[in-house]
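User: Predict the complex with calcium ion.
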Amino acid sequence: AKEQGRNGFSFYDASMDHFAQRQVLLDSKLRQALEERQLSVNYQPILALNTGRIVGAEALVRWRDPELGWISPAEFIPLAERNGLIHKLGDQVLAQACSQAARWQALSPLQIAVNVSSIQFRHGEALCQRVLETLDRTGLPAKCLTIEVTESLLLDNHKDLSATLQPWVAHGVGLAIDDFGTGYSALGYLQRFPFSKLKIDKVFLNKLDTSAPDRSLVEAILAMARALGLEVVAEGIEHDWQAQFLRQRGCHFGQGYLYSPAVTAEEFERLLHQESQH
Ligand code: C2E
Ligand code: CA
Ligand code: CA
Ligand code: CA
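Assistant: Here is the predicted structure with calcium ion placed in the model:
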């Protein structure tokens, strides 16, 4: 309302107020939700593309506020990164995911993937320690855990990141580069850091049928991953032709709505039981 009479400006101001108000509201609600441990974790199956069997799951945080309803992680994760709550949030997700995955080991030797924000790496050594403690406490074998990080981690100018990550590598915790190709990745990063997996972002899968450049890009990523000895997981597979394309070009793993969205722990367990009967 600073620029009265200029509709464009007053509209802009009003929407900024609205955004700021929502942030303040979400800030206090998220604080409380973490205090009361109200966040839950859903699990999206990761499948072996050649057999169609579930080999793992990605843990994805879920938050339902009694008044506001479901709030998307795309909204509250960036907020948690700004206000510092991401550390507590990340710890709670990790603890839930690891104890759940430890229980599932009796059914199947599943891999569990947990997203870790680059902000959490600002206290990288403490983070590393807590992850190893969580594995210890839950009894989940280190080789069953993969930490997913995005390329922004590599840009964030963390000195000695490689050294920080060494304890995980030594214990056998996997490290995946998430959303590969969407950021500013220099390929050199892939060699400098101890990644074991690469996740192809869903934006590259959308136009595989119509876009020759997208096809070439996915083929190039797969060839490069093979050369570097990285496992590849394709995300956002929604159609069978996408799965077929990927399978034919040596992409071994995938996740997406074609198979299943992220589901509750109970539903995921039902999927595992269903599978063991076939
Ligand atoms: P992401 O790590 O790239 O996770 C994949 C997102 O794609 C998830 O969204 C998932 O539900 C969605 N997805 C899966 N299959 C399909 C598909 O076939 N088509 C489409 N269109 N989408 C699909 P979600 O759960 O809303 O999470 C959004 C983002 O929020 C995640 O992207 C991740 O960056 C962040 N996030 C979620 N949980 C956590 C967490 O515990 N910690 C941190 N640091 N970030 C998290
Ligand atoms: Ca991820
Ligand atoms: Ca991703
Ligand atoms: Ca993403």
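The two ends are 64 Å apart (CA to CA).
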